[in-house]
Write a structure and sequence with these properties.
α1 (9-22) crosses α2, α3 packs parallel to α4 (90-104) and α4 (90-104) packs parallel to α6. This protein is elongated. Helix content is 51%, strand content 11%. The chain is of the alpha/beta class. It is built from twelve helices and seven strands. It has helices at 9-22, 42-55, 71-81, 90-104, 114-117, 120-133, 144-149, 153-156, 170-180, 189-199, 203-219, 227-230, and strands at residues 31-35, 61-64, 108-111, 137-141, 159-164, 186-187, 224-225. The strands form two sheets. A five-stranded parallel sheet has the order 2-3-4-1-5. It binds adenosine-5'-triphosphate and magnesium ion. The site of magnesium ion has 3 residues, from α2. GO terms for molecular function: ATP binding; ATP hydrolysis activity. Residues 28-160 form the AAA+ ATPase domain. This is ATP-binding protein. It comes from Shewanella fidelis.
C-alpha cells in the first residue's frame, strides 16, 4: 500500500472548515470542533492539513493530548510545540504561548481532546488562550466530545465551525483502492461495497482489508479481484475462514 493521504470527503470538509475559521469576520468566534468515531481519519486529516499549512508559510501548532495529561503537562506540550521549555509559574507559560501565537499568527490544533475535556482548568486555559489571541483553535476528539463540550457553555459558545467525520461511502472506498494500491489491480464494485459495509465506513479497517486484497492479488498474479474471485476468505477480524 502506498503511504499517501487520499483527499476523500472528510478531508475536503476539514479543509473548508479551517478556511472558514481563518476568513471569519470579527464578530464570529474562532473555535472549531472535529469529532467522529475512532479510525475515521481525524488525526491523519488534521496532520495532513497542518503540514499543508506549514508548507504554505503558516505556523500551526499541533498537540496531541494523553490520558495522563494535567494542565501543567498540557501547557508543557504546547510550549514544546512552540520550541520552548515550560516556564514557571504556569501563568508565565500561558503568557508566552499567547504572545508567541499573536506575534506569529499561530493557530492551535488539539488532538485527542477527549482526555482534557473533563478538566476545567485545562479547558479554561484553552479559552483564555483563544480569548487573548482570537486565532483559530481546533479541538479534535471522538463522538462524545460534542456532547461533553456542550456542558462547557463559555467554550461551547465560541465554537463557530464543527464537522462530524462521516463513514466512508462507496466513492471514498473506491478512491482508497485506486490511489493506495501499489500494484495494478482493479477491485470489483461488489467487493468494495462489501468492504464499506463490513468496515462500517471506518478508514482504518477499510485499508486493512484493501491491503489483504493487494497481497492476495500479488501472490496469485491477478489484475482483478471481485467477490467471486476473493471467495470466502477472511477480510475482517470477526470473520474467520481462510487467512491470506
Ligand atoms: N484520507 C486518508 N488517506 C489515507 N489514509 C488514511 C486517511 N484517513 C485515514 N487514513 C488511515 O486510516 C488510519 C486511521 O486514521 P486516524 O488514526 O487518522 O483515525 P482517527 O479518527 O484519528 O482515529 P482515533 O479516534 O482512533 O484516533 C490511519 O492508519 C491512517 O493512515
Ligand atoms: Mg486520532
Amino acid at each position: 500500500m502506498k503511504h499517501k493521504i487520499v483527499e476523500v470527503k472528510n478531508v475536503l470538509r476539514t479543509q473548508d472548515m479551517f478556511a472558514n475559521l481563518q476568513s471569519r469576520s470579527d464578530i464570529t468566534p474562532g473555535i472549531g470542533l472535529i469529532h467522529g468515531a475512532s479510525g475515521f481519519g481525524k488525526t491523519t486529516t488534521v496532520t495532513y492539513m497542518v503540514n499543508q499549512l506549514t508548507s504554505m508559510g503558516n505556523l500551526p501548532a499541533f498537540v496531541r493530548c494523553c490520558a495522563t495529561d494535567t494542565p501543567s503537562s498540557f501547557l508543557a506540550r504546547v510550549m514544546k510545540e512552540l520550541g520552548c521549555e515550560p516556564i514557571f509559574p504556569l501563568r508565565k507559560s500561558v503568557d508566552f504561548i499567547i504572545n508567541t501565537m499573536n506575534e506569529q499568527q499561530i493557530s492551535l490544533f488539539v488532538d485527542e481532546a477527549d482526555h482534557i475535556i473533563g478538566q476545567s482548568k485545562t479547558m479554561e486555559t484553552i479559552r483564555d488562550i483563544y480569548d487573548a489571541t482570537e486565532l483559530p483553535v481546533v479541538l479534535i476528539g471522538m463522538e462524545e466530545i460534542a456532547r461533553r463540550i456542550s456542558h462547557r457553555k463559555q467554550l461551547f459558545n465560541r465554537i463557530s465551525e464543527w464537522i462530524e467525520f462521516m463513514p466512508a461511502d462507496n466513492e471514498d472506498v473506491s478512491m482508497f483502492a485506486t490511489e493506495l494500491l501499489e500494484i495494478d489491480v482493479t477491485v470489483g464494485e461488489d467487493l468494495l461495497d462489501y468492504i464499506r459495509q463490513r468496515s462500517g465506513g471506518e478508514v482504518r479497517r477499510t485499508l486493512i482489508a484493501l491491503e489483504k486484497i493487494e497481497r492476495f492479488a500479488l501472490s496469485n498474479e491477478l489484475d482483478f479481484v471481485d467477490k467471486a474471485v476473493w471467495g470466502d476468505g477472511q477480510l475482517f477480524l470477526n470473520h474467520s475462514r481462510r487467512q491470506v
